[in-house]
């Protein structure tokens, strides 16, 4: 295991002391104990600046769910340190995870209720959030009445309701068709630019990562290690089918395959 | 939707029909596919219309459809009752037992009506229902409390889980000798057994239903700040509600059975409950009365099951889009 200097991330593109939204310092996570222990994350270090959109790609088994759990505070690292700016981060999943017994507006109001906001304050904020994801008309509907894309938009509104500085997204669009995904990429990008949120977006779709991210972090599998990172220096809004996106995606995919071969060997 | 599948089957069986232009096709296949074809076409159309207008409220034109749906669900039940009465009448007519032992439906229903008008049934039903509700209420509190504690404390669950199952499977009549010994022939004896009958089912219903809460929802709740009791209140209990209601329903069935057994065994003279009336009818060899009271017991069970738990279950299922497609 390589020694990691405190407060010195492996690679930080700009050395200027921009405000940091998330920092992992030599984070290791082992599941189980003794000979059966599985190392899910191996001395992982990286920093996400405030307002940055960082995509994390890796094959299955790269420990991305473990990493998100650690950052979301649902689990604690075996070694190392996770530093999150502000309150508890918001987390969005591949499935909407909407509560089926609540209407759309009640779902979006849920984090506000947990924060102890009054009914009136909640209603105003919920209307605003549903406006952001263009679902005002569906406030009274139940989740089962919505399409997959609409559910994810409600989930996004609910995540935004938390007013966290950091939004974690765990393959949020993986279950959607390509057209809906394209559409939601644009919506998410617009929202991100409007709110100044910091986003950590986990995906195994490399093009999606290049389409959305300021930076793409590449993780290897078993154990999960940070093997490379790419600066995405392309103008926004990008198109997922543009040649520039495709070119960088190809470079990253090649590196990903190399890492996979390395892991298999 | 079975109708659509049916239409598909028919189409598969006669593929040439689909090769013909639409109007011709319906005429060609008239005898065979008219009914399923039409309903298969109607359904998505109406659903699409509803989606397009964004209306959940039934339009004026749907009222006859609703009446038809009501009739569709009512007539098989009525037919089944009629069939049961006819069978009963047949057995009586066969002369298997003399009529003073096994009277026919007409005499029994007449007696039922007369007792109802005289107010006897009302009085007895009120006494019995009061006991049932009181016992069930106590069982509800005890069952939920026990279930929650066992759900939260793993050691206790390991320790008491199988004991609870043992309690649940034990026929509640077996408790009566002990209950009578402890409480004499009193309301308390009946109540104790009703509670013992219902509480384990409610607790087990709560436990299994909380076990089945999707972990993703719990995770989502935690991320949004629900911890400890508020996690239970806002996520786990609502998510477990459908299974919990099934446990409540089973608890009611056990409470009702225990109560009937109790009222037959623990006769309290000044309280003419349904059980007392049943027992007296037997002692007086009043077969008409006996059967009439049995019908009362059955009807009360059906009413509570349908009106309380049936409605509750349907509401929950509909609200979550769990309405069975085959229903």
Number of helical elements of chain A:
7
The total of beta strands of chain A comes to 9
Give the tally of structural domains of chain B. 3
Total DSSP E strands of chain B: 0
CATH class of the largest domain in chain A: Alpha Beta
In short, what is this structure?
Chain A has 265 residues and is α/β, with parallel strands linked by helices. Chain A is 36% helix and 24% strand. Chain A has helices at 64-72, 104-114, 119-132, 148-161, 178-195, 206-212, 243-264; strands at residues 20-31, 38-49, 53-58, 79-84, 90-92, 166-170, 198-203, 215-220, 225-231.
Describe this structure in words.
The complex is a heterodimer of chains A (265) and B (327). By secondary structure, chain A is of the alpha/beta class. Chain A folds into two domains: 20-89 and 169-264, P-loop containing nucleotide triphosphate hydrolases (Rossmann fold, 3-Layer(aba) Sandwich); 98-163, no CATH class. Chain A is built from seven helices and nine strands; from the N terminus they run E-E-E-H-E-E-H-H-H-E-H-E-H-E-E-H. In chain A, strand 6, helix 5 (178-195) and strand 7 form a beta-alpha-beta unit. The longest helix of chain A has 22 residues, at 243-264. Mean pLDDT of chain A is 87; it is low at 1-14. Chain B folds into three domains: 2-57, no CATH class; 65-96; 112-319, Orthogonal Bundle (MetI-like fold), CATH 1.10.3720. Residues 1-58 of chain B have low confidence and may be disordered. The relative contact order of chain B is 0.08. Chain B is built from 14 helices and no strands. Chain B has 327 residues and is mainly α. Chain B is globular, with a radius of gyration of 27 Å. Chain B starts with a helix and ends in an 8-residue tail after the last helix. Helices cover 81% and strands 0% of the residues of chain B.
